[in-house]
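Propose amino acids for all 179 sites.
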C-alpha cells in the first residue's frame, strides 16, 4: 500500500493536484526527565499537527537499558494516521523534540522526550538517518509491551511475526510495568 501511495503522490505532483494519501505509523514515545506525564501528553498533543492520533497505549514505567545510570522512563505507543512520508514524519518528530527542549548530550542518556517511528504501514525504509521498522524494536520490551496493547496483531514487515509474538519471545528482564 505504501509503495502505491508514494507512487500516487508522485503522479499527482506532476499534475499539480495533490490527493491526500493516508498512512498508519506506529510511534514509541518516552520521557525520563522532568514531569514525564506532562512531557508525553505534550508530545501526543503536538502529534495532532502531523495527522490524527488514533490510539495511545497506557503509560508504562520502564527500566533504562544500555545506559542504566539514569531515572526510569515512562513510555507509550501511539498509532498515527498521517499524510506525511516516512522522512517528513521523522523530520517533524525531531522538530517537536527540539521545540520541547530535547538536548542530545549523551547517546541513550536522559531525555525529556524521545520519539521514534517503529512501523510505517508495511513499509521498510533504509536511508541515512532513518530505518523502518525500527532496527531494535524486536529486542525491547519497553517498546513491544505498549505497542502490543494497541497493535498486537500487526506484523513486523521484515520478521513476519506479530507484535504479540515478538513480545512473547523476549527473554526475561527489562522491567516494564503499567504506570
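Proposal:
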Amino acid at each position: 500500500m505504501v509503495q502505491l501511495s508514494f507512487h500516487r503522490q508522485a503522479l499527482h505532483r506532476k499534475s499539480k493536484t495533490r490527493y491526500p494519501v493516508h498512512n498508519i505509523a506506529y510511534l514509541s514515545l518516552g520521557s525520563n526527565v522532568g514531569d514525564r506525564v506532562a512531557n508525553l501528553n505534550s508530545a501526543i498533543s503536538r502529534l495532532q499537527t502531523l495527522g490524527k492520533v488514533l490510539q495511545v497505549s497506557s503509560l508504562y514505567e520502564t527500566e533504562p537499558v544500555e545506559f542504566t545510570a539514569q531515572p526510569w522512563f515512562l513510555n507509550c505507543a501511539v498509532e498515527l494516521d498521517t499524510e506525511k512520508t516516512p522522512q517528513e514524519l521523522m523530520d517533524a518528530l525531531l522538530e517537536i523534540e527540539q521545540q520541547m527542549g530535547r538536548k542530545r548530550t549523551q547517546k541513550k542518556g536522559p531525555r525529556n522526550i524521545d520519539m521514534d517511528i517503529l512501523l510505517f504501514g508495511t513499509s521498510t525504509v533504509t536511508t541515512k538517518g532513518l530505518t523502518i521498522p525500527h532496527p531494535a524494536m524486536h529486542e525491547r520490551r519497553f517498546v513491544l509491551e505498549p505497542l502490543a496493547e494497541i497493535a498486537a496483531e500487526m506484523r513486523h514487515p521484515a520478521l513476519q511475526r506479530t507484535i504479540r509474538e515478538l513480545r512473547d519471545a523476549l527473554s526475561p528482564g527489562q522491567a516494564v510495568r503499567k504506570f
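The CA atoms of residues 68 and 129 lie 24 Å apart. Helices lie at 2-15, 36-47, 86-99, 141-151, 163-168.
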